[in-house]
Structure formats: structure tokens, C-alpha cells
Amino acid sequence: MACFDNILLCTDSYKVTHHFQYPEGTTQVYSYFESRGGKFPTVTFFGLQYILKKWLVGKVVSEEKIQEAKELYKLHFASDIFNEDGWRYILKKHNGLIPLRIKAVPEGSVVPVKNVLFTVENTDPNVPWLTNWFETLLVQIWYPTTVATNSRAMKTIIAKYLSETADSMGGLPFKLHDFGFRGTSSVESAGIGGAAHLVNFVGTDTVASLVMARHYYGCEMAGFSIPAAEHSTITTWGKNHEKEAFANMLHKFPKGLVAVVSDSFDIFNACENVWGKELKDMVEKRGQSESTLVIRPDSGDPPEIVVKVLNILEKCFGSTINSKGYKMLPPYLRVIQGDGISYETLQGILDKVKENNWSSDNLVFGCGGSLLQKVHRDTQKFAFKCSYCVINGVGKDVFKAPITDPGKNSKKGKLTLELEDGTYVTRQGGTGNPEKDLLVPVFENGILLKEYTLDEIRKRAEVDEAK
Predict the structure, then answer these.
(1) Which of 150, 171, 206, 393 is close enough to 181 for a disulfide, judged by CB 3.0 to 4.6 Å?
(2) What distances in angstroms separate CA 255 from CA 170, 282, 293, 399, one per listed residue?
(3) DSSP character for 203?
(4) What is the DSSP string of 160-228?
């Protein structure tokens, strides 16, 4: 939105006053970003490139933006507290480019919590206050990183059950489909979070994520979908014409994958009598062209419903036993469960499916609010803190250590992220080896120094299926 394109207005109010607060003679402020812990033991780093390209690359300070900020903050604070001289200095000295240096772990990296993920420092000694001005924007990487982390955790669960019950892992990238667009707080959130999910999977109905991946991560087509029914396209036919509604889907989409929501009235009757008897010949004939009908239950207790649907479909269409000893529906028939899916529920469903001798390869899952919306900054306890400064030419390690919460202790000094015996380690206080530092320069003085494609990121974040 045009009203939000001014970075001088994209910060927390109290930061507008911070240029008055640093010690006299401060010329550098160096800060870092980390996950201090949380739900998952590792985080999948993603989204910084989007923030940099959208907000910081190129000339982002102008006379018009300075005037707009000056007027707004005068009303907001009822005083002339805004650092007009500082921003005007950036405009004149740096031609509106932002004099910061940012180093970050490569996107897609899976890093244990309590490690540095990126660092920020000013490159001009006259604007030390600038580093933490951008905390507000830069910390918003918590969202795509948390979504990517949650999505990858679900991928790990699905991979485990596929490795135990399926002949092939080939379908894994399609096993969790993004249904979350309507449940997000904005189109931008859907794009950012949806793109984060596409780090791990290639199934999505969140079109905004495709735009995001194309525009910011160089991926022409990041995700795929299939024709599918919603309740309105079934219920408008009326309860007594569900057969006709289902048949219409098979007629209109005679080849390929098609998904049909089947619980509008009675999911069990739909599977046993409508699909399993009245339309059985159509379903089987369609399968002769290597096409697949995906039946979607959308209500009830997922573990119980999924197994019952599989059993009914087996009764009507038969099943085979795969090389792992688990049952498979005919290749022209599959099930998608898109209701009640989350990291917390996924294992229970797959456990139940396995207990009943079904392969998880019969299933695809859809996930909405639990994927893109039911997360927050404290899911992984993300924080951005100052760890080093220069005052009157003397470097100084900076930290916080509140006696009321040791979990909020911060790191000290300049930081490096290194690998030691295959484990990520953050070196503090300038003790690290710069040659071993995994933090890559990605931004300096308005210029993007490193750009990642989604394909690169996906490879970095791949789940080790052997585990």
C-alpha cells in the first residue's frame, strides 16, 4: 500500500526518540537476531531477502518522506522530537541509501535455537542510531521463519510415516497442501507465509505465495494445485442430487487429478453408495487414463474419519498390499484430509492410519490456519539485541542479563556462526574465526549483495529422509 511505503514511518514510536539516548561519542551500534528457544529445537531461516528487497534496497529516503515523517511525528509526540537532521544527512551524504551492513545465515539453513541468525551494524559513524531503528522491520522475519519451521516439522512427521509404510518417498513434496490464504490477516501475510511453506512443499492454493516467490525469490512457478470442489459447488445441486454434482466434476475434469469435497451431507453414504456404487464405473474408467479422484472429508474427528473413509473405499474399490506390507487403494483413488490439521494432530492421524494397516501414501493433507496464522513471535522466542558498540573510539561488548528472567539474557560482543564437529556454534565477544563465519554479507549501503533462489533455499532445507 502506498501509505506504507515510507521507512521513516515503519518503526516503533519509541525508536524515534532513541537518537537522544545513546552515550555521547557513540559511533557504532551492532545488533543481532536469534531464536532464544521455543516450540521447535531448530529454525528454518527464511524471509530476510523479501524484507531487504521490499524496504531497504536502493534509494529509500527522500525529501518528501522526511517531510511526511516530520509532520506526523510532531502531531504524534506533540513536539519536534523527530531526528530530521539525521535523516537529512542520510539523504545528502548517502543519496537516500541506507548505510547499514547486514550479514546473515543463508536462507533455508536449519539452525539450532540460541544461535545468531543475522547481524546489523551502521557503516557511517554519524548514524549509530540507525541500526536499531530497523529492528521493527527486520524482526518481522520471525513470521516466515516460523512458518517455514512449522511446515518443515510437519514434513518430517509425514516423511517418517512414508518411510515406514510407503513404497516411495516421491510424493512427499505434495503431501501437505497450503489451504491458509483466507485465514491470514492480510494478502501480504498470505504471500509471505505461503512462500515460507513452499520452502518445504510444492502444493498450495495460496496464490499470493506464488507471486511472492516469483517476485522476490526468482521462481517462475513455486507451487501447484488441481481442480477441486468446494461445498457451494456441491450443495447448490441439492441434497437429493449429490450424485449429479459429483458426476459433473468427473465430466468437467475427465483427466488428471480432481478433488471433491464429499461431506456436505453424509460422508459415509457418499463414499459407499455414491462414489462406491452409483459412480463406481465412472471412477474406474477415469482411472484407465491414469487419472485420480481425491475424496475430501471435511468434518468430524480426523483420525476416526480418515480410517473409516479408507475402509469404506476399500470395501467398494478393493486394495492391494505394498512392499512394506500396508494397504493401498487403487491408484485412481486417494483421500485428502484438510480439516483439523496441525503439527499437533498430524502424528495422531498417521498413527491411526498405520495401526489399521493403511499406508500413509493414500493420503494428502491440507493445512490452513495452523500453518499460516496460529504462530507468533514467541513461538520461537525471537529477539533482536545490541551486543557491541563503539564509544569515543573504544569498542565495548554490550549485553542484558535480567535477574527476573535468565532466558532473556543476550549475547555479548561481535558474533560469528561456525560449525564445530558438525554442530552450529555462536562465538561471542569477537572470539570467532572470521574465515569460518557462516554469516554471509547480504546487504550494505543500499545494495543487495547476495540473492538466493527458492530452489537453492529448498535444497538447503531438505528433510533427511533417512532419519
Answers:
(1) 206
(2) 21, 12, 10, 62
(3) B
(4) HHHHHH-S-STTGGGSEEE--GGGSSSHHHHHHHHHHHTTT--BB--HHHHHHHHHHH--S---B---B
**The residue to which cell 536462507 is assigned:** 107
Q: Is 393 annotated as a binding residue?
A: no
Can you give the pLDDT at residue 463?
Answer: 82
Instruction: Give me the pLDDT at residue 466, please.
Output: 47
Helix (H, G, I), strand (E, B) or coil at 185: coil
296 is in an annotated binding site: yes
**Residues in contact with 128: Cβ distance below 8 Å, sequence separation at least 6, in sequence order:** 22, 26, 27, 28, 29, 122, 389, 390
Q: Global pTM?
A: 0.97
Q: How far apart are CA 98 and CA 131, in angstroms?
A: 10
Q: Is 205 annotated as a binding residue?
A: yes
Backbone angles phi, psi at 362, to 5 degrees: -75, -15
3-state class of 371 per DSSP?
helix
The grid cell for 28 is 557504532
Q: Is 361 annotated as a binding residue?
A: no
- Give the SS3 label for residue 259: strand
Please tell me the predicted confidence (pLDDT) of residue 2.
Answer: 64
pLDDT of amino acid 3: 72
What is the spatial distance between Cα 98 and Cα 174, in angstroms, rounded to a whole number?
Answer: 41
Amino acid letter, residue 133: W
* Contact in structure between 62 and 94 (CB atoms under 8 Å): no
Amino acid at site 294 = V
Instruction: Of 41, 31, 143, 119, give the one whose Cα is nearest residue 382.
Output: 143
User: Which residues have a Cβ under 8 Å from the Cβ of 242 and sit 6 or more positions away?
Assistant: 234, 264, 265, 270, 274
Annotated binding residue 298: yes
Q: Is 339 annotated as a binding residue?
A: yes
Q: Please choose, from the candidates 152, 219, 190, 187, the residue with its C-alpha nearest in 3D space to the C-alpha of residue 380.
A: 152
Determine if residue 338 is labeled as part of a ligand binding site.
Answer: yes
What is the Cα–Cα distance from 120 to 394, expressed in whole angstroms? 19
Q: Is 88 annotated as a binding residue?
A: no
Any binding-site annotation on 427? no
- CA-based max dimension of the chain: 84
214 assigned to a ligand binding site: no
